[in-house]
């Protein structure tokens, strides 16, 4: 089944009007992307240039134990820095020197900007170039994780976009596949085996597991997005000559098959071979999903904008679990990257972009959905009002892509309803 041949609802959402709102938002900041990125790039270190609030956020979000030594930290901006009484660049140079002396295993150091560093106009890109020259053997880059104008998944986008200029030029004249987006190692390994069985090679992943394993990019690179929130990274890769392969995202059995099909068609994989390679995985995924159908079928779900995963998730829940999306809110609707998703959404769902949180709360309360997907800041108040909620950030922390994770993805939405039904007994 190809992405273009997927059965569409009677009226998809590709031409549906979109409610665009610009008001008060409720989101995490981009610093939280470090939680999954520092686990992915095993010899990288993320140094946040921020306040004690940034440090507390990261410690709380990561749940770091006292005996663990994570690959991230915060260089604290205090009152003297904010008042201009200390030279922030000298302080930063000292902290980086101490860090690299203590951790000589670091091969890639990210200076991560925050709201406080942007307020005092600290130029981290210039600082990164200076420190890169000073510390041989460790590449120093910078990106912004500030939450002033972004949502939390855009931290990954900014990080990967910073890596693109470091990627070598592809010398091959044959097509090369580049999978873009941080994936759990088990998911990456599963996808590698599927691509190998399809005869698709070479295959690179961005981000890589090690800093010296950056894949090459060039005019023969075919770009397959694993995450829908990587607009800046995709733009940078396309400027290097890569060509995007439009596809639904690999969520659920149907989405994973369509995503793999996009690569298979670009490589000219014969249809019988594609079916032979994907049939068992798709069948296994559908069986795992079906175990949660009775709990979720017919239930109404409301998405607050948070991660940019909302549209692919709504497609998966509507088509594979028969849920009914009422409103699908997303921080930003990238029509080019979601072109294969929008026609597969139920036509009666409201699409909203951006946020005016008070108005959206009013619409949610009026609709009385069975399940609300939202950020942590809204979940507890809504639970107190009697709504079952799912934390959207959990959908980014948890491996959900691919055939073998499809059942786990369905379970994430079933679990709040199981808990709610248990409390009623």
Automatic annotation (TrEMBL):
EC number(s) stated in the UniProt entry for this protein: 1.3.7.7
Gene3D superfamilies (alphabetical): Nitrogenase molybdenum iron protein domain
Coiled coil ranges: none
UniProt entry keywords in alphabetical sequence: 4Fe-4S, ATP-binding, Bacteriochlorophyll biosynthesis, Chlorophyll biosynthesis, Hydrolase, Iron, Iron-sulfur, Metal-binding, Nucleotide-binding, Oxidoreductase, Photosynthesis
Cofactor (UniProt): [4Fe-4S] cluster
InterPro entries: LIPOR_BchN/ChlN (IPR050293), Nase/OxRdtase_comp1 (IPR000510), Protochl_reductN (IPR005970)
Binding positions for [4Fe-4S] cluster per the UniProt entry: 29, 54, 115
Catalytic activity: chlorophyllide a + oxidized 2[4Fe-4S]-[ferredoxin] + 2 ADP + 2 phosphate = protochlorophyllide a + reduced 2[4Fe-4S]-[ferredoxin] + 2 ATP + 2 H2O
Molecular function GO labels: hydrolase activity; oxidoreductase activity
Pathway(s) of this molecule: Porphyrin-containing compound metabolism; bacteriochlorophyll biosynthesis (light-independent)
EC class (word): oxidoreductase
Pfam family, one: Oxidored_nitro
Annotated Nitrogenase/oxidoreductase component domain residues: 29-411
CC cofactor note: Binds 1 [4Fe-4S] cluster per heterodimer. The cluster is bound at the heterodimer interface by residues from both subunits.
Source taxon at top rank: Bacteria
Self-association and partners: Protochlorophyllide reductase is composed of three subunits; BchL, BchN and BchB. Forms a heterotetramer of two BchB and two BchN subunits.
Family to which this protein belongs: Belongs to the BchN/ChlN family.
Function, as annotated: Component of the dark-operative protochlorophyllide reductase (DPOR) that uses Mg-ATP and reduced ferredoxin to reduce ring D of protochlorophyllide (Pchlide) to form chlorophyllide a (Chlide). This reaction is light-independent. The NB-protein (BchN-BchB) is the catalytic component of the complex.
Identification of the protein by name: Light-independent protochlorophyllide reductase subunit N
Organism: Paracraurococcus lichenis
Organism lineage: Bacteria, Pseudomonadati, Pseudomonadota, Alphaproteobacteria, Acetobacterales
Gene: bchN
